[in-house]
Amino acid sequence: MGHHNSTPKPNLRGWLLQEKSMAPDSREDEGVHIGQHTCSRLDEAESREWLLSDGLGGYASGTVAGTPTRRYHGLLFDAVTPPTGRQLLLHSVQERVLLGEDSFDLATNRWSNQSITPRGYEHLTSFKLEGRTPTWTWSLNGITLQRRLAIKNRIVQIHWSVVGSDHPIHLQYSVLVSNRSHHGLYQAGEMTPTTTVDGSHATITWPFGPVPKLEISTLGTLMTRGSWWRGFRLEEEAARGFPCTEDAWQALEGQLVISPTTGANFHAGVNQAAVRAQPDLIAAARQEDDAAIKKAGVDSADSISGRLVIAANQFIVDRVHPDGTTGKTVIAGYPWFTDWGRDTMISLPGLALETGQPEIAESILHTFASQEHQGLIPNVFSDDGTPPMYNTVDAPLLFIEAVRRWHEVVGDRKRLAAFWPTISAIIEHYTNGTLHGIGVDESDGLVHAGEPGLQLTWMDARVGDHVITPRMGKPVEINAFWYAALRTAAGFAGILGKDASPFTKAAERVHASFGRFWNPHTHCLSDVLDGPDGDDHAIRPNQLLALGAASELVTRDQGQSILEQARRQLVVTMGIRSLSPECSGFTPHYVGSPEERDGAYHQGTAWPWLLASYVKSSAAICGETPDDLIKEITQQLKLHLTEAGMGSVSEILDAIAPNQARGCFAQAWSVAAMLDIQGMDTRGSNPTENTKHERRKKKTSGVH
């Protein structure tokens, strides 16, 4: 079953379905940057989104153009119960620059009648990420004005600066506020706040709601206002089949002078003292980014690896435990996900270990270990504070794999022992049977799982009561994860002085039975065995997850065949299809109503995170790092980082060219997969090589 370097290699090149030319205004030396050619075209500028996370689950996000296109766009979403309970407090700051007798609006809005006014994007000459910091540049009658944003600890800062001029600029702005769930919409008349002004400070108070007040502080003049701005049209919500108009309350009007030497600032947040202190969050963000780059051992924030390191830290946030202590967790995706167990365990090696943060990884592991229940860890923490859900068969097994990856880095026996009770509980409950039909079949040692109306694997979409991909029975990747978990448990038992033989024997039995998955007719692994309707032979990427977890479960010839079929039927630009086009039910586009999109979610839609398993599988089968494949992925990644979520990696893509980015514009496991792939390029084909952070600096070229 071993793999040898002399084995003929499957064709891993030529898998890209399209080549994209460089944007005319791209500059390789400026990291994530787009110029006037893109910024001045509304369709291009509003299809690109930016994100800032405050480390507590709160965030700010929007489009490069400034048009809000989602209900999740705004300048301050506050996590009331970190990292959940997120409320939109600061809708927007609508700016107007006064230059003599001329005035220039910087904002851009689309209204319910489809009109676009004002049209600030027409003056926008560039957008750039400086580390994590989004930076806009406008050209106004020969004057260059820049705006930067930062967010941390429930406070947002806006900083305006003048470039290349000795003259101050006068700025007027309207402060629009809201107070609703980030999943909701704010309508005129729902709840009207009161506003009090104290010099250059203001307090906006709502009559009810989870966040009673919003504090504002600046160095200019503030004046109370009180009117509704009605009819913002959210174009992306319309495309997703949801209600798409929203209103906002104009609480204040402000005026200030932007000094050519010091610029000008605006702060908003929930804590009065903290906001009025006017902290320099932009400088703090720059320092934190520099520290993160240094800790990860990469060259700069503008290298591919540097961009991914910066993106990774946006997902790592605090979670308050039931006992009141605070640990770390991972937001699965922005803007709408909370922290999911499966996503967290898949993401942890890339987000925390490839970035040189094993202490963060350890905290995340303890967060989920503390919630273990009958051998399961939470599938998802709700956004409303209700108890977590445990409908997952893969997350507990992936937890064990995440502990293995973490322990390879730290090598600490005592700290490993703290996780042993959780690991042994998982193995015991899977062996004896636990919730949701999860357990080991005594006849073959394979894990079965599932109940009618319930989805337990990562293919978890449903429409009403209809589960699109129930996968009841014995899923292929789950049994590879089970085998790997048993092997890991045996290794840990040896380290901790415990009996490893039960784990070794169980793993040997899985190995002996796994051959049942091979389907000589499709030259692939079956997706599910022994389901309610028999075996499922659909060609899906779950066999790549199995190969990436335990390639020794197949022969060399089988592994090569799986890779070749995947290359031919599943691999697309920047992702792996969830179903082959040759299979019944294949859906090429992730569009339409919520029901239509949920029906397409795992029926062809491509996923970037699966590329890591494709690369790992290729390395394992071929016996060496697939350098050409990694280079091709890296080239596509360079473009992707400036095409959807600026500086981040999307959740999903359409299954056919041009593979339009869809879903969340920043997804944790997508970013983590790219970090893992970059790490494989650094480590070589041995996934444990150099894991104690004796790493070479990653020499990847800059992002266009």
Question: What would your notes on this structure say?
Answer:
The protein folds into 2 domains: 28-287, Beta-galactosidase, Chain A, domain 5; 297-683, Glycosyltransferase. By secondary structure, the chain is α+β, with helices and mostly antiparallel strands. It starts with 32 loop residues before the first strand and ends in a 21-residue tail after the last helix. A hairpin with a 2-residue loop joins strand 10 and strand 11 (143-152). Helices cover 29% and strands 27% of the residues. The longest helix is centred in the last third of the chain and has 20 residues, at 476-495. It has a 9-stranded antiparallel β-sheet with strand order 1-9-10-11-12-19-16-15-14. Strands 2, 3, 4, 5, 6, 13, 17 and 18 form an 8-stranded antiparallel β-sheet that branches.
What are the main properties of this structure?
single chain; 704 residues; alpha+beta; Beta-galactosidase, Chain A, domain 5; Glycosyltransferase; 2 domains; nine-stranded antiparallel beta sheet; 19 helices; 29% helix; disordered C terminus
Largest sheet: 9 strands, antiparallel
Q: Average pLDDT value?
A: 92
* Strands, total number: 37
CATH class descriptor name of the largest domain: Mainly Alpha
- Write out the strand line-up for the largest beta sheet, numbering strands in chain order: 1-9-10-11-12-19-16-15-14
Helix content: 25-40%
Q: Report the structural category.
A: alpha+beta
CATH architecture of the largest domain: Alpha/alpha barrel
Number of domains: 2
CATH topology (level 3) name of the largest domain: Glycosyltransferase
Low-confidence stretches: 1-24, 685-704
How many helical stretches?
19
